[in-house]
Structure formats: structure tokens, C-alpha cells
Amino acid sequence: MAYIKEKQVAIEAALKAAAFCIDVQNELIATDTLEKGDKSPVTIADFGAQALVCQHLRTVFPNDIIVGEENASSLQLPENLPLLEKITAFTQRFVPEANNERVCEWIDLGNGEVNKERFWTLDPIDGTKGFLRREQYAIAIALIENGDPKVGVLACPMLPVDYDDPKRGVGCLFVAVRGEGALMASLNSHRLQLKPIHLVDGRDPKRLRCAESIEHGDHELQKKVIKEAGLHADSLKLDSQAKYGVVARGDAALYLRLPSPTQPDYREKIWDHAAGVLLVEEAGGKASDMLGQRLQFASDQTMKHNQGVVVSTPVYHRAVIDALRYFLA
Questions:
Q1: What is the pLDDT of residue 309?
Q2: Which pLDDT score, from 0 to 100, does residue 130 have?
Q3: Fewest CB atoms within 10 A around its CB: which of 38, 111, 186, 208?
Q4: What is the largest distance, in Å, between two alpha-carbon atoms of the chain?
Q5: What are the residue numbers of the active site?
Q6: Which residues bind Mg(2+) (predicted)?
Q7: Residue 312's Cα: distance from chain center in Å?
Q8: How buried is residue 292: exposed, middle or buried, by Cβ count under 10 Å (0-12/13-18/19+)?
């Protein structure tokens, strides 16, 4: 077994960040947000989760580079001191020695540069709008070596354990190590019990469906492609890399994300996909961009050589790529 220590440390970091996010969500005040440059809301959970994950990773792996989504520059503005103090207060529940200065330092540990050797990539809250809606979001952590995801962990605090049986509760942890399969555990069990997960069974027609983003993508083209590929059940609509989780465990057969017509040159970020791609591949699936090319995680923070994302079973992946070639011809 490879990456034993990395796997355990990533799980610990994700669990700590998930607990942090749950606390913040339960006590959230709507005004406790900043504005990113792209106008997406950022909550105190974004900053605090990044601080906790970076602090945990760097404590165990002091020489590893971390490429995260957030930086602390906005928090250090005088007008944002009350927000920083709230982040610190929540962080102290998990790391008692935290103070304002250390929290900013921990956040900025995630300002490393992508390289072709080894680095971690982190999205402290993938699906911020889902978080604010009390719907789907994920803490996403991945270890990249030589451009290939080797360890991936997704904590999805609001994801039903079974999408079609809400009575089983919510909160899932997904874990994958290259070459060792995909695993899932309930976040609500007294003892974490990771069990193997697999892609959809083709004999279950209600799960032969697509998982799509609520807002992002070209939904009109996606609808045509999904139908042409032979998936006729209604799509699941949810935020974040939780979509990778539902594909990996067989709640859906496809995750399709095509560039929006309003942003045709948009390129995905590595932290939005690295952990999820590994999870689905280890469950037996296939991931690529909309042209069928392998997703690249070591060229930049932005996946500038890829456009769109197609994640599915091998059979439906081929059908989707064929359908895209037909519609884009």
C-alpha cells in the first residue's frame, strides 16, 4: 500500500475542516461574507477551513507545497478585523493556539505554486453558494505527483448517504489512493468505516442519469448530449465536487460540465477537480475534457489545456464524447 501517511493526514485534515464548516454553518450570519474578484461569496468557513487544512498538512509534511484557493490579503485590511476575529475564534475550537496572525499565516501556506514534482491542492469549500443555501458543498484535498492525483479526499457534510433514501442521513467522506480503489464512509457514524464504492449498475435505470451543476455550464447543450448518450432519467442538480461522489458510488452515471456560452474561454481550476477525478477513476470510471483529452493538473492553477469536464463510466464516457463531436461538428 502506498501513501499511507498522506492518506491518513488528508482524512484527518478533511474531517477537522468539515467539523469547522458545520459549526460555522450552524451559526452563520449572512453578513459575514467578503466578495471575491469573481463576485462569488466567501464565508468565514472558506478561510478557516483552509487555515486548518494547511496547518495540519504542513505540520506533518513541512516541505510540501500547498496550492489553495484562498489567500489572507483581504482579511488583513483594517475594516475586516471583526471578520478575522470570528475566523480565529472558530479556529481556536480545533487549534487552541490559533490567533489572528497565525490564522493568516496558515491560510497563506496555501499560496504555493504548481509544479511537476509534488504538491497538495485544496479547495476549502467547493460550492460556496451551496454552503450558503445549506445544500451541497465539499472540502476537497488532493496530492499531485508528476501531474497525476495520487491521494484524494472529499468531505461532503450535506450529501445524503444514499441520494434516493434520505432517511439514511447526510454527511459523506470519500477517499481514494491511486491503484487502491475508491472508498466512502458516513460522517455521522461513531467510528469511521470506509467501504468500497463502485460505479452505477447498468441494470438500475433510475440511476442512469447525469449529475450537473446548478448554475455553471451550458445546460442546453448538456441536455442534448445527455439524451444522445442514452441517459433518460432526470438529472441530479447539485453544487461542488459532491457530483464526483455520486458518480463514484453509482447514484449517477455521468458528470458533465461544458463551458457556458457566456464564458466560452473559461477554464477550470485544478482544486475543483483533482480529488474528484481520482475518486471516479479509482471507482472504475473515466475522466477527460470535452474533447476526450486527459485532464492536466500540473501546468498551472488553471487547467488551461483543457475545456469542459466529462466524467462517467467507460461506456457512457465514449457515448458522451461521440455525442459532443456530433453536436460541435
A1: 97
A2: 87
A3: 38
A4: 59
A5: 46, 128
A6: 69, 123, 125-126, 272
A7: 16
A8: middle
For domain 205-328, the question of CATH label 3.40.190.80 is answered with yes
Does 38 carry a binding-site annotation?
no
- As a 3-state breakdown, the chain gives helix, strand, coil percent values, each rounded to 5, of 35, 20, 40
Tell me the domain boundaries of the chain.
4-196, 205-328
Query: Following CA atoms 291, 294, 298, 299 in sequence, which dihedral angle do they give, to the nearest 10 degrees?
Result: -30
The residue behind cell 485532464 is: 295
If phi > 0 it is left, if psi is from -120 to 50 it is alpha, else beta; for residue 196 that is: beta
Q: Does 125 belong to an annotated binding site?
A: yes
Q: Which CATH architecture has domain 4-196?
A: 2-Layer Sandwich (3.30)
Match 449572512 to its residue by C-alpha cell: 30
User: What per-residue confidence (pLDDT) applies to 41?
Assistant: 45
- Contact (CB, 8 A) for 276 and 152: yes
Written as one string, the DSSP assignment of 106-143 is HHHTTB----SSEEEEEEEEE-HHHHHTTS--EEEEEE
On whether 201 is known to bind a ligand per the annotation, the reply is no
Q: Name the E strands within the chain.
A: 33-35, 41-43, 66-68, 118-126, 138-145, 148-160, 170-177, 182-186, 195-196, 210-212, 236-237, 254-257, 286-288, 309-312
